[in-house]
Amino acid sequence: MKKAFSFCVFFLFLFMTHSARAIKFEHIGIAEGLSQLSVMSIHQDRLGRMWFGTEEGLNLYDGQRVKVFKPRYKIDAHSEKGKDGLLGNNNYPITEDRSGNLYFCSDGKLIKYNLHLQSFHTVFSKDVSTVTSHNGTIWFSCKNAIYEIVEDTARLFFNTQADIQITSLHVQANDLWIGSDNGLYTYNSRKGFQLFLPQTAIRSMYEDSRKNLWVATLNNGAYQIAPDRTLTRYVYDRNNPNSISSNLVRCFTEDSTGKIWIGTFKGLNCLDTTSGKCTCYTADDKHKLSHSSVFSLCRDQQGNIWVGTYYGGVNYFNPETNIFNYYSANDLHYPFVGSMLETPDHRLWICTEGGGLTCFNRTDETFHNFSINWQQPEEQMAHNNLKAICYHPASQRLFIGTHTGGLVSYSLTNRTFKHYYLQSPAYTSQLGPVVDNLAIYQNQLIIQVRGGLYTMNLQTETCTPLFNNPLYKSIWVHTFTVDSQGYIWIASHTKLSRIQMSHPDNARHYPLGKNGLGHFAITRIIETPEKEIYIGTRGSGLFKYDASSEQFLSYTQDKDQLLSDYCYDIAVSPKGSLIITGDKGITLFNPQTGKSKFIGLENNVPISAINIGCKVYVCQDGEIFVGGVDGLMSFKEEDIDIKQPESHLYFSTLWVNNQEIYPGEDNHILQTTLPAARKIELTHNKNNILLQFASTNYTASTQSGIYEYRLMGFDEQWHTTNSYHIPYASLPVGHYQLVVREKNPKSPNYTPQQASLEIEIHPAWYQTVWAYLIYTLLIGFILFWFIRFYYSRMKLRAAVQLERADKERIQALNQSKINFFTTVSHEFRTPLTLIISQIELLMQGSPLPPNVYNRLIKVHKNAQSLKELISELLTFQKQGENVLSLQVKEIKMTPFLKEIHQSFSDFAETNQIDYKLTCHAPDAICWGDEKQLKKVFNNLLSNAFKYTDKQGEIELVINENDNELQIQVIDNGIGISLTDQAHIFELFYQASHEKENGYSLRGSGIGLALTKKIVEAHHGKISVRSQANYGSIFTVTLRKGKAHFANAPT
């Protein structure tokens, strides 16, 4: 048995791997728009954009999109106006001159791309093999000769006269290095043309920051030529783990730390020339190269390394911001990482959820795996699905909780396992096969199982329930921890409990959703070195226990304190930060300041997801290990504060009225390429624009992906976008400034980017200053003519008013005469009455002679006629003075008012007025003078129509109660001010609003006064409620019955 065990242990210890710092390569391929996967050259222009030369065209990448130039593709109208455009498929190498214009070889031709005009031009049309630049001067080779570009003209510099094919050029101080298919040569004016490396096929050359020249060869590895011409060679050695991976070397670049990156046929190599250590990256693992055959390398302004491969497109990464170590499923024997523990010998013990237990020696970076041996399970791990682990220093044992394998211990001294589930029936009957959590407390092992909490005496290894209280025995525990004060914190489905271990009756229970605690399940409870209790939840965020108030303080995503409210695990760093893992990544929360730092899963981290059950652990030296669903990663807290590389936003593309705009077109919108433009000017009919913007920040760890923009002078607030498109339609004439900036950058040490562009929309010719000057003169002339016309009308009006005054004077004179006549007539009546009475006495007295009596009869008759004439004259005068005599009778008001209402219907229809009758008293009866009341309602309705505009509303409403009848005339006309309402029923009074609104000719000031007289004659009341510019309500109230008309004729 011991031999079998020893063999198993030996077999397991053979699985030893080394892990270097992980690099997560970002990829650009066909799916991202690349024209072809063979990327032979990479270059960054001065605007920050990346150019990829492939075997099928040239590609321009701005961080968001790839623009492809192929021979059949015309970049703009310039290509059709005497310029050549792109002429070939193979476009490499790429370089630039001092003005930023690009030069590259294209199927044997030298092509220039004007960066500002965005146009291609053929510089040299035959047998060009390579091109380079030095201090802005362009050098290229044609067959065995070397040329330089001077003032846009190719000038022969040197002819080697050798039978060689030049493959690369490099200018270093006064030396010109010439790489060929048969050796490396050097040329200067003093020593001439000399062979330096014979019989060696040269692929490329690169000069590092220390003036070392690196030479890539076809089969002889890489050479380093020092400034003193000392030669160092790097070749592949299968027995040397620090050798380069292939002798077929193609390219070089240098990072900010001085490390040399070497592209080979079998991977990308990172060479530390100081230590001699060389690390190789291939396409064999996750996040690695898309293809191992590397053809081109380029370091951009941010320090990103761009890698062009033969069949994998473009890869890029940033070694400066790469702070993570990554340990794959191959290292751990399973991708899902759970609980972890470090022992004093700096070994990290890692529980997986299917690969058993892995021991990571952090000193030599080796891995040893312990998994189940199904032939002899009692001698190995009880199960490969591990849930918890803890360490007992006194006995140097690890205690491991498994899923369906029960509790297991592992002795670090004799390297043996013990299975309590398989070997102890007493254990089996109490605890069961599933152990979810473990903790050491005062030489006891506290065990969390599905049936509650148990304790094992580590000397006798006997198990008993942690508490005898039946309430605690069968509780379903989510998680627990024991604090430094001797209290155990237990989280269950419905509550959080705090129980004193020595006196279990001393307990406090906090229901979920109460005392400030969240409603969702608790996932983790932890005590900090400051003796503060923090609780993580699955959806409610993070909580801190306040012992003084017995309340819980919350920290959430909404307060920008957490990356997510789903907190899976918590650990404390040496700096006191809480390391909180969740579904969106990692939060480093500082309890002292309340500030947080975030590491999102998209922030260039090597693991793709963190799930419930994935744990976080902080080692003694502060290295933080985070488990994921696809491996394990680690980092140092201080590395997060590394200053992030600078970058800038720029506007990349302009569309006007759905047409893309290029520099130098006939529309004169762009004089240079848009990223270099500071202002664009548009005409009034070209005011529908779409601007695309991009960023030179290619580092995923600092990109937020969310931007906000605002057109100053047009927008009142910022607009948020993640589409890199900014549209504006029908912009009015004016001067604007478009500003776009990055919102919520992910890195705390990253300055948000911002770009701005002035936009001016010019007015049409009829909106110019000259046009407005003409308009002013024209208006002045019209105004002058109007004033003249106005004064002539005023003169005419004065003459009319004078004539009217004369007429009024004559009318007043006539009225005076009538008044005098009436007065005299009234005086005639008294003596006439006396005369008639005397005649009647004479006629009734003693008999008179017939002739006298007949004469008296004639006199009496004529005198009576004269009295009646005088009475009629006085009656007419009384009517003029509004002293009315009513002819009262019973009136059925509904038919009566319907007839009046109907008489205005045609007028209402003509004037488009909503005119209606609302009757709430269909059987209403009233006593009165029908003729006079008709005048009342005709007058009120007439006034309503006078002062109600078209589209207005007028309503005649009939209401009644026990004693009275109310008739209302309602309109939404111009209304009556509060001041005018006090005088509106006075004779000849005209309201002020009539004069102000031009209604002075509509009313005479008599109608309402007469109406009031008639209503009052009927013992009724009339009132008005109105508001200027709102409308009016006239209410006539008439008494029912006829008792109040006792003296009126019927």
TrEMBL record:
Gene3D superfamilies recorded for this chain? 1.10.287.130, Histidine kinase-like ATPase, C-terminal domain (3.30.565.10), Immunoglobulins (2.60.40.10), YVTN repeat-like/Quinoprotein amine dehydrogenase (2.130.10.10)
- The residue ranges of the Histidine kinase domain are 823-1042
Task: Cite the Pfam families for this sequence.
Answer: HATPase_c, HisKA, Reg_prop, Y_Y_Y
Which keywords are on file for this protein? ATP-binding, Kinase, Membrane, Nucleotide-binding, Phosphoprotein, Transferase, Transmembrane, Transmembrane helix, Two-component regulatory system
Give the first-level EC class, as a single word. Answer: transferase
Tell me which SMART domains the record gives: HATPase_c, HisKA
The regions listed as transmembrane in this protein's record are 769-787
The protein in question is named histidine kinase
**What InterPro entries does the record tag this protein with?**
HATPase_C_sf (IPR036890), HATPase_dom (IPR003594), His_kinase_dom (IPR005467), HisK_dim/P_dom (IPR003661), HisK_dim/P_sf (IPR036097), Ig-like_fold (IPR013783), Reg_prop (IPR011110), Sig_transdc_His_kin-like_C (IPR004358)
Q: What is its EC number?
A: 2.7.13.3
Record organism: gut metagenome
A Gene Ontology molecular function term for this protein is: ATP binding
Q: Which reaction does it catalyse?
A: ATP + protein L-histidine = ADP + protein N-phospho-L-histidine
